[in-house]
C-alpha cells in the first residue's frame, strides 16, 4: 500500500507558501474529557465522493488564488511603472518652473528699460534696433512656450498622480482578496484533514483500493472508447516541456507553487512550457480559456489535458494514455492515467509547431506512477483508533 499512498495534508500545510500560517493539526480528544469520537459509517464510495468534492473545492480555490496572484504581480509592476513616470513628470515640472522663474526675473529686469518702439526712433542704426526687437520678440515667444510647457507638465504630473493612487488602491484590494482566498483554501484543506482524521488505517486502505479500481476502470473505458488516437510525436517545444515535467516527478504538490522545488497543477504545466520557450497563462482555467483547443483524438505529447467542468485541474500529456501531473495536496508529481480524473478536453500551447520526425520519449524515474492520483492517503493522516 505504501507504493500507492503518499503523505497528505499535514505535509501540504507545512510546505505551503512562506507567507502562510500552516493549518493547525486536528486536536485529539483529551483523556478523560468524556468525548468519544464516533466512527464514520459512510460507505467507501460515499467517502471517496466526499473527498473528491472537498479536493475539487480546494483546487478551485487554489486556481482562483493563483489568478489573483497573477493580477497582483501585474498590478505591482503597473504601480512601479507609474511611480517611475510620475517621478520623471515631477522632475520635468520642476525644470519648467525653474525656467519660467528665470524668464519672469528676466522680464522684470527688462521692464525698467526703454520700450523697443522708442529705441527704434532714437537709434542711430534703426536696422540694428529692429534686429534687437526681433530678439525681444523671440524671447517673448520663448516665455509663452515655457508657460505652455509648465501647464502641460503640471497636468501630466497631476494625471499620473491620480493613476498611481488608483493603481495602488487596486493593489491593496488585490492583496486583501488574496489573503481572503488563502484563508478559504486553508479552511477547505482543514475539512479534508478533519475527514481523514476520522478514518482508521483500515478504512483508508479500503478507500485507496476502491479509488485504484475506479481509476483503472475509468482508464480502460476511456481507451476502449477510441477517444485517443495512435501515437503522435511532439513538436520540439512540446518535447522540451515533457522532459521538464518528467524531471519534476517526485517533487511535492504545493498550492500556489510554480517551482522549482514544488508545484500545483497549473504551476507545473505553465513552467514546463516556459522552459520550453513558450509562455502560457498561469492557471488551468486561463489555459483552457486562452489556448487553442484540440480533439483528444489528435493529442500529442506536450499538450495540456484539462479536467472537471470548471477547468480546475490540468496535466501535461506524456503519451500512450498517460499524463504528468501534480495531483492534489499531500501528493507528489507523478505519472497518472489520463482518465484518473474526469476529462474536460485538451489545449495546445504551440498549434503552429511542426511535429518531430523521430521521437524517443524520456525515460521515467522508478516509481513514477506510485502514489494517489486524487491526492489523499493514510501516511500523513492523524493516527486514530476509530473504525
TrEMBL record:
It comes from the Bacteria. Residues 346-387 are annotated as: Disordered. InterPro entries: NLP_P60_dom, Papain-like_cys_pep_sf, PG_Endopeptidase_C40. Pfam families: NLPC_P60. Residues 235-359 form the NlpC/P60 domain. GO terms for molecular function: cysteine-type peptidase activity. One of its GO terms (biological process) is proteolysis. Keywords: Coiled coil, Hydrolase, Protease, Signal, Thiol protease. PROSITE patterns: NLPC_P60. Residues 1-27 form the signal peptide. Belongs to the peptidase C40 family. This is NlpC/P60 domain-containing protein.
